[in-house]
Specification:
N-terminal domain of TfIIb, alpha/beta, 11-stranded mixed β-sheet, 38% strand
Length: 252
């Protein structure tokens, strides 16, 4: 399972990610496309809860779902520290039944991309629709196929300084155009005094998507496509350099 050993480093690796900006963007989607005021939000693939915590602080009633117990434990601890009342639950978005419907469902940070088969995507979107009120909004982000194929994923290193030394993350991607996937092989090292003290290796298989393909997935699950645009840019236009995209839909 992904995000197991990786979960320990997740928040430290992504501490430069602007979660507040992304939650402001979600609010603009809710305000622009919502049929009435959005109050209840289901955050699927919530991870360590960073989006959920900010959305809660913004006044939304948030429920978070994730498959990884380790990520959820971190989310629960963060909520307790911040004195936030958020219902974090373990669950698989492909087979979810909370017996509850929400004004909006969000799938942030490429949750859809971790569903690499057509059946998994269909099941996830069917589950998402089941948890939306009539007219409820769905939004998520994903990798855009034309940009992935045009720019090609490359090897990358990221360095994070901490009191006990440095974290080094090395990513080696393997592109499979036929299956529309990138296998990202991560090596995570903790380094102190120029010596490696801990090494973790984990592989993540991530799918990328094309415009008409996404429309087809949503439409078959009775989710009207409202907009597919560059991530964080509601008025932007897609092109072959736009790697991250937003998908915005409404339950029919």
């Amino acid at each position: 399972m992904v995000f197991e050993q990786y979960s320990v480093y997740y928040d430290r690796i992504y501490r430069d990610k602007d979660y507040q900006e992304e939650c402001n963007y979600l609010k603009s989607i809710f305000d622009t496309y919502g049929e009435g005021k959005v109050r209840t939000v289901l955050d699927v693939g919530c991870g360590t809860g960073s989006h959920a915590l900010i959305l809660s602080a913004m006044g939304y009633d948030v429920t978070g779902i994730d498959l990884s117990e380790k990520m959820l434990r971190i989310a629960v601890n963060k909520a307790e520290q911040q004195k936030k009342q958020i219902n974090f639950l373990q669950g698989d978005i492909r087979h979810l039944d909370l017996s509850q419907k929400f004004d909006a469902v969000v799938a942030m940070f490429n949750v859809l991309g971790y569903l690499t088969t057509n059946r998994d995507i269909e099941n996830a979107l069917s589950s998402i629709r089941k948890h939306l009120k009539p007219g409820g909004l769905f939004t998520g982000d994903a990798w855009y196929g034309p940009a992935v194929l045009n720019e090609k994923p490359g090897e990358r290193e990221k360095f994070v300084e901490q009191e006990s030394g440095r974290i080094v993350r090395y990513a080696r991607p393997v592109l499979d155009p036929l299956r529309q996937t990138v296998e990202v092989n991560y090596t995570m090292s903790e380094v102190k005094d120029n010596k490696e003290t801990v090494r973790v290796e984990e592989s993540h298989m991530v799918r990328f998507f094309f415009y008409q393909e996404l429309c087809g997935f949503l439409e078959r699950n009775d989710i009207e496509v409202l907009k597919i645009c560059p991530f964080l840019k509601l008025d932007g236009q897609l092109d072959e350099h736009c790697w991250n995209i937003s998908i915005i839909g409404r339950r029919i």
